[in-house]
Amino acid sequence: MTDSTPYIGRFAPSPTGPLHIGSLVAAMASYLDAKAHHGLWLVRIEDVDGDRNVAGADDHILASLRRCGMRWDGDVTWQSRRSALYEQALLRLGELVYPCGCSRKEIADSQLHLTGKQAQALIYPGTCRHGLAPGKIARALRLKVPRVPHCVVAFDDRWAGHVGQDLTDEVGDFVVKRADGFWAYQLAVVVDDGAQGVTDIVRGADLLDSTPRQLYLQQLLGLPTPSYLHVPVVLNESGEKLSKQTGATAFDHGAEPRQLLRDALLPAARFLGLDVQAESIADFWRAATPAWARLIQRP
């Protein structure tokens, strides 16, 4: 993108429960980056994983954002209402997509002989790449990753610096539609960012490893590549990413604005490295926006 391209950012939470302090950090970083660059800030509910969605969580998330003083531009979008866009993208990928009948256990068993980095992730060995094996039933749809030459994807992250990944050796052919019929995150997020004209993606570092796959999909679909910034994730006392699965609790239980400022906004800002003093939520954003601009200089 060029300096003349209008900035469009987004926050895209999954409605698996109310926002906790870890998700507030990601929301705050994306919001501040948009405001510091006089851009638009969109909100998209990533609810394609129907099994994990919690009823009413999307409304709770939106209410928490409002209470924190974060106002989005335009209408909120829900991924569950955008399946037609994902189907179109699947058709455009054509013969690069193939049905796979392998279970996670079968993939794991195929890697028992591997060592080092390859043994740390479920790298698909390509069992169904040239057709389903006898007796197998299609479970998911996978996207082919080139093997010769290797598909190496690199980019410059605004926080983490230069990042590179060999998709051939470190990922393999990856899922674009899951065995349960839900669209895979990698495909849905790329299609949505392209359709919404997102130019800058600010999110947690737990998604840094997904970015090369998304860049590869953008290339195949002829979509522009946004700028990326991955902020550190909040960890619990055991050193695990703070999430609902690791015991994260909601930061917003109807607290008064001053309590919300003291117990949520100011700690989240400190975690991001911002030295902000404020007596009200409005004061907080007035101080935090230029503080973020000083901390992060957009190329």
UniProtKB/TrEMBL annotation:
<feature type="binding site">
    <location>
        <position position="128"/>
    </location>
    <ligand>
        <name>Zn(2+)</name>
    </ligand>
</feature>
<keyword id="KW-0067">ATP-binding</keyword>
<feature type="binding site">
    <location>
        <position position="203"/>
    </location>
    <ligand>
        <name>L-glutamate</name>
    </ligand>
</feature>
<dbReference type="Pfam" id="PF00749">
    <property type="entry name" value="tRNA-synt_1c"/>
</dbReference>
<keyword id="KW-0648">Protein biosynthesis</keyword>
<keyword id="KW-0547">Nucleotide-binding</keyword>
<feature type="domain" description="Glutamyl/glutaminyl-tRNA synthetase class Ib catalytic">
    <location>
        <begin position="10"/>
        <end position="278"/>
    </location>
</feature>
<comment type="function">
    <text>Catalyzes the tRNA-independent activation of glutamate in presence of ATP and the subsequent transfer of glutamate onto a tRNA(Asp). Glutamate is transferred on the 2-amino-5-(4,5-dihydroxy-2-cyclopenten-1-yl) moiety of the queuosine in the wobble position of the QUC anticodon.</text>
</comment>
<feature type="binding site">
    <location>
        <begin position="10"/>
        <end position="14"/>
    </location>
    <ligand>
        <name>L-glutamate</name>
    </ligand>
</feature>
<dbReference type="InterPro" id="IPR000924">
    <property type="entry name" value="Glu/Gln-tRNA-synth"/>
</dbReference>
<keyword id="KW-0862">Zinc</keyword>
<keyword id="KW-0479">Metal-binding</keyword>
<feature type="binding site">
    <location>
        <position position="185"/>
    </location>
    <ligand>
        <name>L-glutamate</name>
    </ligand>
</feature>
<feature type="binding site">
    <location>
        <position position="124"/>
    </location>
    <ligand>
        <name>Zn(2+)</name>
    </ligand>
</feature>
<comment type="similarity">
    <text>Belongs to the class-I aminoacyl-tRNA synthetase family. GluQ subfamily.</text>
</comment>
<feature type="short sequence motif" description="'HIGH' region">
    <location>
        <begin position="13"/>
        <end position="23"/>
    </location>
</feature>
<dbReference type="InterPro" id="IPR020058">
    <property type="entry name" value="Glu/Gln-tRNA-synth_Ib_cat-dom"/>
</dbReference>
<feature type="binding site">
    <location>
        <position position="102"/>
    </location>
    <ligand>
        <name>Zn(2+)</name>
    </ligand>
</feature>
<dbReference type="InterPro" id="IPR022380">
    <property type="entry name" value="Glu-Q_tRNA(Asp)_Synthase"/>
</dbReference>
<keyword id="KW-0436">Ligase</keyword>
<feature type="binding site">
    <location>
        <position position="100"/>
    </location>
    <ligand>
        <name>Zn(2+)</name>
    </ligand>
</feature>
<dbReference type="GO" id="GO:0016874">
    <property type="term" value="F:ligase activity"/>
</dbReference>
<feature type="short sequence motif" description="'KMSKS' region">
    <location>
        <begin position="241"/>
        <end position="245"/>
    </location>
</feature>
<dbReference type="InterPro" id="IPR049940">
    <property type="entry name" value="GluQ/Sye"/>
</dbReference>
<feature type="binding site">
    <location>
        <position position="46"/>
    </location>
    <ligand>
        <name>L-glutamate</name>
    </ligand>
</feature>
<dbReference type="InterPro" id="IPR014729">
    <property type="entry name" value="Rossmann-like_a/b/a_fold"/>
</dbReference>
<feature type="binding site">
    <location>
        <position position="244"/>
    </location>
    <ligand>
        <name>ATP</name>
    </ligand>
</feature>
<keyword id="KW-0030">Aminoacyl-tRNA synthetase</keyword>
<protein>
    <recommendedName>
        <fullName>Glutamyl-Q tRNA(Asp) synthetase</fullName>
        <ecNumber>6.1.1.-</ecNumber>
    </recommendedName>
</protein>
